[in-house]
Hints:
heterodimer, A: 635 residues, Pyruvate-ferredoxin Oxidoreductase, domain 3, Rossmann fold, 3 domains, 19% strand, disordered N terminus, B: alpha/beta, eight-stranded mixed sheet, 34% helix, binds thiamine diphosphate, binds iron/sulfur cluster
Amino acid sequence: MVSPNTPETPGGASSASGQSSVALAKVDVPRSIHDVVIRLAGNSQDGIQSIGGFLARLAGRSDQDIMTYMTIPSTISGGPSIFQVRMGTGEILSAGDRADMLVAFYQHSYDAHISSLRPGGVLVYDSDHVKPAEGDNRFTHVAVPITTGTVEAVGGTSKDKGKNIYVLGLIARVFDLDVAKLSALIKERFGGKDESIVRNSMLAFDAGYAWPQNNLRDLFYRFEAIDRATITSGRPQVTMDGNMAIAYGLLAGGVRHGAGYPITPWSSIMETLRVELPKYGGLFVQCEDEIAAISTAIGFSYTGHLAITGSAGPGLSLKMEALGWATMAEMPLIVVNVQRGGPSTGMPTNVEQSDLMQAIYGSHGDTPRVVLTPKNVEDCFYIAIEATRIAREYSTPVLILTDMALASRIEVFDEPDLPKLMVEPKADLSDRGTDYKPYPLDRITHHAPAGSKILSGKYPTVTGLEHDEMGHPTGSPKLHMQMTAKRREKIKALGASLPAPEHTGDTAGEVLLVTWGSNWGPGREAIGRIRAAGVKGGHLHIRHIHPLPSGLEEIFKRYHKIVVAELNDEGLYGFGQFAMMLRARYANPAIESVCKTDGLTFKVSELVAGVARHIESKELEATLGTARQSALAKA
Amino acid sequence: MSATALATPPAPASVPLTKKVLVADHPTWCPGCGDFAVLASFYRVLEKLQYPHEKIVTFAGIGCSSRFPYFVNTHGGHFIHGRSLPFAAGISLGGDDLHVFVFGGDGDGFSIGGNHLVHTARKNVNLTYVIMDNSVYGLTKKQTSPTSPIGFKSKTDPWGAFDQPINPMRTLLNSGATFVARSHATQVNHMTEMMLRAARHDGFSVVEILSECVEFYEGAFDSSIPRKGGKWTLIEEKKNDGTPEDANRHDVTDEVAAFQLSQQAWPGSFGVFYENKTRLTKNALEADLIKKTREKTKHATDLQVLQNTFARLR
Ligand SMILES: Cc1ncc(C[n+]2csc(CCOP(=O)(O)OP(=O)(O)O)c2C)c(N)n1
Ligand code: SF4
Ligand SMILES: [Mg+2]
């Protein structure tokens, strides 16, 4: 396969600079690699994030090579900022434990992040600002005058603005990326603005591209070729973060109403819906607080429009009383909770999975409810659609428990088959017959929304008080038991209908690694490494976390140890929240926990080490610390 | 009525809305509770309005007064304590052709729900809110409420309350409610008129009704009941008839004058304090946003809109 990106034409034929540095590259042959982890460290005003944006979009548009990719977003605005991208061929499952290449814009970037570079990795630094430690021969040092290079290329008064695009050019050359497509993306991005911005960007890009070509010819890689047809739907690829994917999934699932109150990292979902919903004839209300938000959303649902509300941990706590009402009154509702470090304000821009118990058991009384957890950005889209189906079918609140990592990372995935998936929302205001009851004991409740005629002339009451089949309040112990069972049984029925969870690797053996939510990718990668070390192991990933799908008992029995990995504390009894639930549910003493609360996603090596702690395996221990995350490590 | 409307008269409601159709469960209030009269007036209001039966929604929070919806045979229900207004905002915005009535007590509305009251009012959501103020927590059996006067002996202030009570009219005016009225459960005709005007108002309309809790705060409102020696002072509204008397009458569109009325010494005046017919409702503003946005998308189908969005994410 020939890459359309040929080094002879840096910047592409349409390069604004018209510069060309031909000849040299002709003799260069790129080395083939599977994937690479690049960490860019600078300040947030340097536009480091936009390098990632361009690379992601490029990955989405690449025909020959698939490059999937994730980021670790910056947490401080205005100050130091980092951005990590892993790109390559085929499925990229995690952001990568350590960087293969570090681009350091400043001395503080170098100081803070040199430890993230793996031994043997490539340090690219701005020689105008950074002095690396002398005699440090762990890494390949590449000094690039990023600042002066950019200033010289762009000229005029723009100072060093455009350093990010210069570095993008450099990366494009080192990894033999598709220059024509990147140029097109840059033009699309800046096209609406002053023409000089596009021109300056292209000048910076070309200068960055030319630098390695003239100075660093042996730093030249190309991602392995892959037969794209075997792994994709044939539809184009799209690029977005997990919060966007949830918002668009809800739109596809026919949600046209919602209400919320801002909180990181949930806010971008409500911002997207506030702007998008009017296009669909719907609306999203910004409320005075989370309680008002869930109340308004349930009010929408009461009028026959399945609605969404959402928040992050503390806000979900505020919604609990109303959530109890929605369970009692059997109202369909979608609640998104984007988990962050807690309790309280905790670590608001870090990831944690410590809201699981709250999601399942928070609220007063017996409130059986549905909790779904997406495994990656693409799944955020599909799980949102599934949540709308369940909420309607079972007339129940459904929680989507996502997290900070998914909320903010960008991934590339096949564009969903929208014509097939799109749900036409329509409030069912048809007349209800004379036998209509809001709370029949022998059937799942389906409300008659306000506005629908009740032919018996007896209009229904929906209420948080225990009620009879007509919704009238009752103190009858018998009815409370019957209605409690009714609310429980429908959720159990849902559980029985769920598909088997994703189970990969050895179907029996030493260890079963169990993950939920965003730990799917690192879990998959970890089991690969564990098995490569000669340990028989499987990976089980749970998306439907409450109710649980059936059949887990039998799967668990086939392994000596079941190790549940989750981003929360081991608690008073030594088990994470999900492990605790599984132990209670299956009474299986082989269930163990791997937990952590450092606010970061699991590194694959941490999972491997966590599993090694629970099983006695010399092979596995021997691999710890030596496993390599990418092919570049061997290059 | 327009000619076309005459040519195709709307199908008459199959059953006219009479009290007989509207009564539901038998009220569970204590005999003598002021809330019975509010309920009786509300039946009369619905009889006069003759809205299509299925388009009426009666909702409430929690409290004795909030039991109201069980006694009215319309779509409706009973939400959680203090949060009926945001819930009802969802109903109003989700079903713009619905007629939404919310009932509740002084604790429900001014205490736990106080912030919601302010925000539903400022947004001018189209619904009617009736606060049945008995100046006590009835359902929970005699604790101090936000409208209990200083000196009121409750179970939480056996020595007499000393926290400053709120002034409901001033609070409502300040929140930006576009229709604010005050009435009394012993004045059935007045109550009916106030609720009727509130229902016809386009926007957030609120009527505060002094409704005695005979169980826990007997005689609370005697000072405004003439047969108990009290004074019943009606607000005289400006008629704009050019007469000299008219100059002294209350202009309901004058917010400052409304604030002045709210500052009168207890028991104050009854009637419409304020009415603003010009401020747009949230319902109208959101509908306008949708209309303009749909024009921009050239009325693309939902599928086309989402497909266009995804195309930009390629
Ligand atoms: C979250 C919550 N807190 C407290 C209560 C208990 N509670 C029920 S009604 C009520 C106060 C009722 O007073 P008011 O709103 O004035 O109504 P009234 O009974 O006087 O008509 C309280 C405190 C509750 N139901 N829910
Ligand atoms: S306790 Fe008071 S408010 Fe409640 S029903 Fe009895 S009289 Fe009415
Ligand atoms: Mg009260």
